[in-house]
Amino acid sequence: MASTEDVKSESAVTTIVNLAEEAKLAREGVKAPSHALLSVTKSLVAGGVAGGVSRTAVAPLERLKILLQVQNPHSIKYNGTIQGLKYIWKSEGFRGLFKGNGTNCARIIPNSAVKFFSYEEASKGILWLYRRQTRNEEAELTPVLRLGAGACAGIIAMSATYPMDMVRGRLTVQTEKSPRQYRGIFHALTTVLREEGPRSLYKGWLPSVIGVIPYVGLNFAVYESLKDWLIKSKALGLVDDNNELGVATRLACGAAAGTVGQTVAYPLDVIRRRMQMAGWKDAASVVTGDGKTKATLEYNGMVDAFRKTVRHEGFGALYKGLVPNSVKVVPSIAIAFVTYEMVKDILGVEMRISD
User: Fold this and answer.
1) Residue 35, burial from CB neighbour count under 10 angstroms (0-12, 13-18, 19+)
2) What gap in Å lies between CA 148 and CA 126, rounded to an integer?
3) Chain segment 215-261, per-residue pLDDT in tens
4) Which residue has the higher pLDDT, 354 or 96?
5) Cα separation of 284 and 123, whole Å?
6) pLDDT at residue 304 greater than cutoff 70
7) Which regions does the record annotate with the repeat Solcar (predicted)?
């Protein structure tokens, strides 16, 4: 056994070595990076890349979904996914398929970065509280706890980037024939702020937050729970020698997660989009009983928007654009999850969301 003097000697040597290394870095003008800050930065970068890649891959379907959600029920232009994409291509060309994608990426990149990072931090906090409550240091996150962490992440990310989502919707819906032409993100933000006031930037925020709880929460909960089950049960022989799932399997888990989440939350997404368009005179018009047109319906809150939508167009209007959205969400969520994990691997971050 080492003596007290030996321990003190080793401690002193270690301290001297550490101080010497710090002094050397100082002389060279190099500041040792904070491990925590570096880890946070890598997580944010991975989340941002995942959001940008996944959203650009499905940009045409995203635009068609919004057009279907807000189009005039008395003047139907888009009658489905294939027909709608062909109509956009014919009337606006290839660029029309990606209209609003720059704004969308400008919103989704920080949104995705904040969402993934918030989920990781919320998961850590919830797991810490759960282990203290159960007095079991080996306890793991349950699907319900993952749902809660995902809901927290969704609310934080949605609230932080909501004005960008609001103007993205307007940039996506406007056409070359619209009297009002927003020239870009900044112009749209300043115009809406000047003409409609600060509160208009958060139109539809409540249904968005309510909708993001099941949507993002279920995305994370289903994705991680499916992965966890497949790895532990080794079902269908999908686990490799390193006890990992392949890219195709992870994509399938992400697709299942996206399908479940968006189906549950979709009506709230429709209401959110309509509330964002409310009061905008250049949005899709509504035909009155005398054949004249008027601006889009005004809504006195989320419940009123639900009631008027169902009364004027039927319950099915709450699921307008669901088909292209489903086709979009399946690859989008899958690509986002897998890209996030792959980028973190490339950046050398050991911990993944499932850890």
Assistant:
1) exposed
2) 8
3) 899 999 999 999 988 888 877 777 777 778 888 889 999 999 988 88
4) 96
5) 42
6) yes
7) 38-125, 141-229, 245-346
Q: What whole-number distance in Å separates Cα of residue 320 and Cα of residue 56?
A: 22
Distance, CA of 233 to CA of 207 (rounded, Å): 38
Residue with more model confidence, 46 or 179: 46
CA distances from 205 to 136, 154, 159, 201, 269 (A): 39, 12, 8, 9, 10
Q: How far apart are CA 165 and CA 354, in angstroms?
A: 28
Q: Give the residue from 299, 279, 102, 140 showing the smallest Cα distance to 207.
A: 299
For residue 279, pLDDT over 70 is answered with no
Q: Give 288's pLDDT tier (boundaries 50, 70, 90).
A: very low
144: tokens are 């319900």
State how far the Cα of 206 lies from the Cα of 265, in Å rounded to an integer. 13
- The full set of domains in the chain, from first to last, is 34-347 (1.50.40.10)
Residue found by looking up tokens 């002193």 in the block: 12
pLDDT, position 289: 42
Tally of residues, the chain: 355
